[in-house]
């Protein structure tokens, strides 16, 4: 097959990225809503920082932390949270904030995959996708991290609006995305649309790097396994859709497990000053945190180590299949578009 020109290649990557991101986001929206509800709850333990840092038992949400805070937490587990959201908000509650989320995810994945292909082309000296798989893990990590940064800056305001709409619960503070946007501009100014950008960029560097780096590594391992099983008869070691799904699942799990605490910090910045019912957790006051490091310190002091891992279970349960669906959808959509345009 003829390799498409630069403009066609960019169009293929951008379109395939947007479609794969939209599919993945819609399928995993309920898990994302549950994750955000856990992350934005503020349950104070008021522990000294040295105790918060070294009370390792708290790192297992659902054990010590749950026993200490169950009387004060609205959500104590995924099943209970699912039942509460369905009872109070109906089925639509699980897709709350999905429109701004799609407006965030689709441009994000579009930019990400386009920039990623450009960077890998530069690093490999070839625009052919099959040559990119042979890049070193280091170059795959760097390419993924830079692509993630570019995509984050380009789509961040929609991520902010999505988080606010998904976290407000009932009764609603903002009936739609427009009212939330206007209120943010009035109360925080234009800079308010980028609240939490710093911890987001700090998070996205290791997250996107790990996700793409490990995905390429798992793909190489799977291709080698295919060659081994076929005694070398399959020259390219091509992967099935199931194998691509497993590679994406593993990559998403690894990346999210490492970077989850930074995601919690980002969400706290994003909901600063948000008015909501007390049953959804204490209100995060406007300018409650001076910067990312201050936020980490205060969360550790007030909530312990477990505060940085709130929502870790629904987060991984959501991130793993989301990454898998995104990668599989992108691979197949990209191949389909390439076959049409070339």
From TrEMBL:
The keyword Mitochondrion applies. It is found in: Mitochondrion membrane. Gene3D superfamilies: Mitochondrial carrier domain. GO terms for molecular function: thiamine pyrophosphate transmembrane transporter activity. The keyword NADP does not apply. It is a multi-pass membrane protein. GO terms for cellular component: mitochondrial membrane. Keywords: Membrane, Mitochondrion, Repeat, Transmembrane, Transmembrane helix, Transport. Solcar repeats lie at residues 8-122, 135-221, 239-336. It holds the Pfam family Mito_carr. Its main location: mitochondrion. Belongs to the mitochondrial carrier (TC 2.A.29) family. PANTHER family: SOLUTE CARRIER FAMILY 25. Mitochondrial transporter that mediates uptake of thiamine diphosphate (ThDP) into mitochondria. This is Mitochondrial substrate carrier family protein. The lineage of its organism: Eukaryota, Viridiplantae, Streptophyta, Embryophyta, Tracheophyta.
């Amino acid at each position: 097959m003829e390799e498409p020109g630069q403009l066609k290649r960019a169009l293929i990557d951008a379109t395939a990225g947007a479609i794969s991101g939209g599919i993945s986001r819609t399928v995993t929206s309920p898990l994302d809503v549950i994750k955000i509800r856990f992350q934005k709850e503020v349950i104070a333990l008021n522990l000294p920082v040295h105790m918060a840092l070294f009370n390792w038992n708290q790192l297992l949400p659902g054990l010590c932390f749950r026993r200490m805070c169950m009387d004060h937490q609205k959500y104590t587990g995924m099943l209970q949270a699912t039942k509460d959201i369905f009872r109070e908000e109906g089925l639509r509650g699980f897709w709350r904030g999905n429109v701004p989320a799609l407006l965030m995810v689709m441009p994000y994945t579009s930019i990400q995959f386009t920039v990623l292909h450009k960077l890998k082309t530069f690093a490999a000296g070839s625009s052919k996708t099959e040559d990119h798989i042979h890049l070193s893990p280091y170059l795959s990590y760097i390419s993924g991290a830079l692509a993630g940064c570019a995509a984050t800056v380009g789509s961040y305001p929609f991520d902010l609006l999505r988080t606010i709409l998904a976290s407000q619960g009932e009764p609603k503070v903002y009936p739609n995305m427009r009212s939330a946007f206007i209120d943010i501009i009035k109360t925080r100014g234009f800079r308010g649309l980028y609240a939490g950008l710093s911890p987001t960029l700090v998070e996205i560097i290791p997250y996107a790097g790990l996700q793409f780096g490990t995905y390429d590594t798992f793909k190489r391992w799977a291709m080698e396994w295919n060659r081994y099983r076929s005694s070398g008869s399959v020259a390219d070691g091509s992967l099935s859709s199931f194998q691509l799904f497993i590679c994406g699942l593993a990559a998403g799990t690894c990346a999210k497990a490492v970077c989850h605490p930074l995601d919690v910090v980002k969400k706290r910045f994003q909901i600063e000053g948000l008015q909501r019912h007390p049953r959804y957790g204490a209100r995060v006051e406007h300018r409650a945190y001076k910067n990312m490091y201050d936020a980490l310190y205060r969360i550790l002091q007030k909530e312990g180590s477990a505060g940085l891992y709130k929502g870790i279970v629904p987060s991984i349960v959501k991130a793993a299949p989301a990454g898998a669906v995104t990668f599989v959808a992108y691979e197949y959509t990209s191949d389909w578009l390439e076959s049409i345009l070339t």
